[in-house]
Amino acid sequence: ILNVEQSPQSLHVQEGDSTNFTCSFPSSNFYALHWYRWETAKSPEALFVMTLNGDEKKKGRISATLNTKEGYSYLYIKGSQPEDSATYLCAFPSSASKIIFGSGTRLSIRP
Amino acid sequence: KAGVTQTPRYLIKTRGQQVTLSCSPISGHRSVSWYQQTPGQGLQFLFEYFSETQRNKGNFPGRFSGRQFSNSRSEMNVSTLELGDSALYLCASSLATGNSYTDTQYFGPGTRLTVL
Questions:
Q1: Interface of A with B in 31-70 (CB under 8 A)
Q2: Coil, strand, or helix at residue A29?
Q3: Cβ B108–A43 below 8 Å, yes or no?
Q4: pLDDT by residue (tens digit) across B32-49?
Q5: Is the peptide bond before B109 cis (omega within 30 degrees of 0)?
Q6: Cβ-based contacts of B101 with chain A (< 8 Å)
């Protein structure tokens, strides 16, 4: 059974602070890793697709890195803002059409 | 471009009944996947449809079934509902290009099913 784990489960961060969290995935048979942001009462929204040949991905204050050899990806948020409050999910395609999601990291930003 | 739509948004059923949920993908998207989310669980993959064919299936009992129509719209059916089927059901569509591993999934708002 393939396991995709995210840590921590939840995180409370002061506004303006930077933070990061982890997604661990099987290091064998790697094809890609996806990061999604899921805000309350909204739909999950794609952030990044990490691939074998990819460098660090960046979108505004959010960036992600990938280590396929050891099977982990980090998501970084610089200068957290209240609008960053959401659950961040990583997803690992175990086959072309079957995706395994981690249980997410719930991020809360304190003003 | 319109996003993924799901109907209904909320549903209350009783044990033993059956339910059908509908998903309309983004125009041009050929793949539709269904997920279940229950409290404390991540998104659990139910199944994926592409060109009216089920391409992959998660570890759910046969009471969960689905289909896809020629216009890529998809329906999911749950028969003989159990209390544990209460969950948020999300569908997601993707373009299904040559490299499906990197395809981005676009999610609908979900249908919240409550089984009493």
A1: 31-32, 34, 36, 42-46, 49, 51
A2: coil
A3: yes
A4: 999 999 987 779 999 999
A5: no
A6: 31-32, 93, 96
